[in-house]
Amino acid sequence: MFTVAELFAEWAKIFNENIEYLTELDSVAGDADLGLVMNDGFSKTSVFVAENAEKDVGKLLFQAGKYFNSVASSSMGTLLSAGMMNAGKKLRGKEALEPGDCYTILQGIGEGVQNIGQAKEGEKTFLDGIMPAVRALENVEDVKTGITVAYEAAVKGVEDAKNMVGKHGRIAFRGEDSVGIIDPGSVVAKFLVEGMKNLLN
Questions:
Q1: What domains lie within the chain, and their CATH numbers?
Q2: By Cβ atoms counted within 10 A, which residue in 115, 154, 162, 188 is the most buried?
Q3: CA 157 → CA 19, 101, 121, 124, distances in Å?
Q4: What's the CA gap between 194 and 154, in Å, rounded?
Q5: Distances from the Cα of 3 to the Cαs of 59, 101, 185, 196, in angstroms?
Q6: Which of 16, 114, 2, 102 lies closest to 49, judged by CA?
Q7: Does this model's pTM top 0.85?
């Protein structure tokens, strides 16, 4: 199993490799800054976590979420911060991550994002990428195989969200014309699942 530091390092790597892709997506659906914001957020938070002496993985993840909000100032940064902090609360008291905690982290992030963003699945958001993955991981016995299925569910979630009408953010202004546009938030969710998959396989 991986550590919180290894997870953030992998996320930082993925978002660094996809700066231009996320920027391109966000130029259609948002402010065209998502690639840079996510790269800044994850790269700096990765360093923060690596240098943090906190032994409680829940507290560390909570602190990482709080720090993320300060270095990724955007609507997505605020949403992810809330998600990470919520996941951290669920893991408080543990000194090491276990395979089953992959579900707890993703479920906690999705729940936290939903609570603060007031969106729900089917509205072309981050949730349409992460919640299918969460369901795919629930109650699985073999997390290594399960995370691959979860990633495939997230990929499908991105594709499904593409065909939805945007209900939140700038993309909502397009109304029915938002159908056919890839939602950047759902792609961010897919990358979070991909980071776990990379570490477990």
A1: 4-200 (1.25.40.340)
A2: 154
A3: 21, 22, 10, 10
A4: 9
A5: 13, 11, 25, 11
A6: 2
A7: yes
